[in-house]
């Protein structure tokens, strides 16, 4: 994987925690796995995504390039998801929601499977 939502979550946690170790733990992965994922992405992208803050004890922060790539990916993902949700609402007979289970749009009512006519082809 070059870069995806998993890397974004990891980088956001590094930014929040100021520590790769704490970020990895909060996401349920080992430090070694998190480090390896970041190094793989950095090599593929040709730039550093994180950097040390001062000494080893001061932790990590996102580089300017890491922040730019993360923000750009999030903006792209939101745009793609918005368009996909619009299409899904037009084409599918059930209520759809955003990534992470957050409902987007609609009236918030629950539709039972028996109320859906999946053969509907309007």
UniProtKB/TrEMBL annotation:
<dbReference type="GO" id="GO:0003700">
    <property type="term" value="F:DNA-binding transcription factor activity"/>
</dbReference>
<dbReference type="InterPro" id="IPR051815">
    <property type="entry name" value="Molybdate_resp_trans_reg"/>
</dbReference>
<dbReference type="InterPro" id="IPR036390">
    <property type="entry name" value="WH_DNA-bd_sf"/>
</dbReference>
<protein>
    <submittedName>
        <fullName>Molybdenum-binding protein, HTH domain</fullName>
    </submittedName>
</protein>
<feature type="domain" description="HTH lysR-type">
    <location>
        <begin position="10"/>
        <end position="67"/>
    </location>
</feature>
<dbReference type="InterPro" id="IPR036388">
    <property type="entry name" value="WH-like_DNA-bd_sf"/>
</dbReference>
<dbReference type="InterPro" id="IPR000847">
    <property type="entry name" value="LysR_HTH_N"/>
</dbReference>
<dbReference type="Pfam" id="PF00126">
    <property type="entry name" value="HTH_1"/>
</dbReference>
């Amino acid at each position: 994987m070059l870069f995806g939502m998993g890397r974004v979550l990891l980088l956001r946690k590094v930014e929040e925690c100021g520590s790769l170790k704490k970020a990895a733990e909060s996401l349920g992965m080992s430090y070694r796995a998190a480090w390896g994922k970041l190094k793989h992405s950095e090599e593929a992208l040709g730039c550093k995504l994180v950097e040390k803050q001062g000494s080893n004890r001061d932790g990590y922060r996102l580089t300017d390039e890491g922040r730019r790539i993360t923000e750009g990916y999030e903006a792209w993902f939101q745009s793609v998801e918005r368009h996909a949700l619009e299409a899904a609402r037009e084409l599918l007979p059930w209520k759809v929601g955003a990534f992470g289970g957050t409902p987007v749009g609609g009236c918030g009512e629950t539709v039972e499977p028996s109320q859906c006519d999946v053969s509907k082809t309007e």
